[in-house]
Specification:
alpha+beta; single chain
């Protein structure tokens, strides 16, 4: 195994051979038995997930300025609510932003204090350490409760419309994104258009959202309410690493998140959602072979929680408003699916009179595609940005990219990965067509075609999407082919 592969971490952590030979607990007797190669020759390769078949929906339409709007012109943001309501909203934003800013400051101060305590010269920093300890001993600013304002808090003419209030003095109906007004994302739309046509891909709705430039859509039918939600405890307790991630997403090199809009809502209605933070321990191997544990943080969005405020007002969540009946089914395979496919492909050795472990047998390469940052490369339809707000230390921010927490993204990204995998599969087959396998493998293909009859074309490779941003597969290598020494990176 190449030294640069992260899988070597498992080898470095213990007796890999012993672990591999150890009997697994709670495994059924049937599953613990080796499959009969003769029976595998007669078994078709698994088909874990056919592509979704969808029709393209109509693009989002632009609402005109209502005839009943005062003066027949763009309106100031406070005019989109009943008298005094926008002042309440601004007060709620200000209170939550102040609590976030206080926690951010305390995180910076705690990091500085930790560095001072670790310094070799303790006398030089004694005064600063004492001051920081005094500041951090004070109680942190408490996060305010969630607040809700329903559409009944708006004048009738302003309801049911998403208003673009990035200029709070001149609010107009938001123009949806589309062909002439595309989202900013990291998607190669020409690739999806070209390969979709070449494959005659049946998931027309997924291709529309990607190729037309309108961005991904959830089409939630949730109430047009304005919400200022307090963040969850995972974020409040770990705001330091969260700030690092949010700062990276808001940096000009990415631009996935806006800077703060202060106490103003950039869109009306505006749903300022709750953020949370989850962590995962991962092992890393240094260049000198030392294994260490690191914590990987991820910022999540709670698009499922009903918003309820102390005044008894409430509104359903974005995810509750999704019409799941329209979603194509999401079919996930299991690790056993890949193992079954590998075992079937390895039956080529049976035709050569060899044991599967014999070095002369053709090898089966296992490979994987991991789409790093996954959802975050996809821009969100402008008409849904009002559901992508959150309050940070500098006020209301806009999250322009798809987030972890939106229920519709699981199935949609599964469909995107299925498409990318189909393109990779087509290229593997094109390569195989001009680089034929050995005589033994050609005999295997002929043998299986005869045994399986009309079960479809027989191949010496297998591909599947395991989770929505991870694909993997197995491909038989000829004696002349070898694995790449390092993983490939890039689009």
């Amino acid at each position: 195994m190449p030294a640069s592969w992260t899988e070597r971490e498992e080898l470095a952590r213990g007796d890999f051979a012993a672990e591999r030979a150890a009997q697994l607990p709670f495994v059924s007797k049937r599953r613990a038995e080796e499959a009969d190669p003769d029976k595998l020759l007669d078994r078709p390769l698994p088909t874990p997930h056919p592509p979704s078949v969808t029709n393209a929906r109509a693009a989002c339409t632009h609402s005109p300025l209502p005839d009943a709007a005062p003066h027949g012109r763009p309106n100031a943001v406070d005019e989109l609510y009943l008298p005094g309501v926008y002042l309440e909203i601004q007060a709620a934003i200000t209170d939550l932003a102040a609590a976030v800013a206080d926690r951010l400051g305390r995180a910076r101060q705690a990091a500085r204090l930790s560095a001072l305590r670790a310094a070799a010269d303790q006398t030089a920093s004694a005064g600063e350490r004492t001051a920081l300890e005094a500041i951090l001993s004070r109680q942190a600013t408490q996060f305010p409760q969630t607040r809700v304002w329903g559409p009944e808090q708006q004048p009738g003419w302003a309801r049911g419309i998403v208003w673009d209030c990035r200029d709070p003095a001149s609010c107009v109906p938001l123009r949806p994104s589309g062909i002439d007004n595309p989202v900013a994302d990291d998607v190669n739309r020409d690739f999806f258009a070209r390969e979709g046509a070449a494959l005659n891909w049946p998931d027309a709705e997924m291709l529309r959202q990607i190729v037309d430039g309108g961005g991904v859509e959830g089409d939630s039918q949730c109430e047009f309410s304005t919400v200022v939600m307090r963040h969850h405890g995972g974020l409040r307790d770990n705001i330091g690493p969260v700030a690092t991630l949010i700062d990276a997403d808001a940096a000009p090199a990415r631009g996935w998140i806006s800077t703060g809009h202060g106490q103003h809502l950039p869109f009306v209605p505006g749903c300022c959602v709750a953020k949370n933070c989850v962590s995962k321990e991962k092992c890393k191997v240094s260049a000198d072979g030392v294994v260490s544990s690191v914590t990987k943080w991820r910022v999540t969005t709670d698009d499922s929680m009903e918003a309820v405020d102390p005044n008894g007002r409430s509104t359903g969540s974005r995810n509750d408003g999704l019409f799941r009946a329209d979603w194509p089914p999401t079919l996930l395979p299991t690790p056993q699916t890949l193992a079954e496919a590998v075992a079937i492909v390895q039956t080529v050795a049976r035709l050569r009179g060899l044991k599967l472990g014999d070095a002369q047998a053709e090898r089966v390469a296992l490979w994987a595609i991991d789409l790093a940052d996954a959802y975050r490369h996809l821009g969100v339809q402008f008409a849904e940005l009002w559901q992508q707000l959150f309050v940070w230390g500098d006020g209301v921010r806009i999250n322009y990219r798809a987030v972890f927490g939106s229920a519709h993204m699981v199935g949609l990204f599964q469909r995107i990965t299925t498409f990318i995998l189909a393109v990779a599969t087509a290229r593997i087959h094109a390569y195989d067509a001009v680089h034929p396998y050995s005589d033994a493998h050609l005999a295997w293909l002929t043998e299986r075609a005869g045994r399986l009859g009309g079960a479809g074309p027989q191949r010496a490779s297998f591909e599947m999407v395991y989770l929505n941003n991870d694909a993997c597969g197995a491909t038989s290598l000829t004696p002349r082919e070898s694995l790449l020494p390092d993983p490939l990176h890039g689009a």
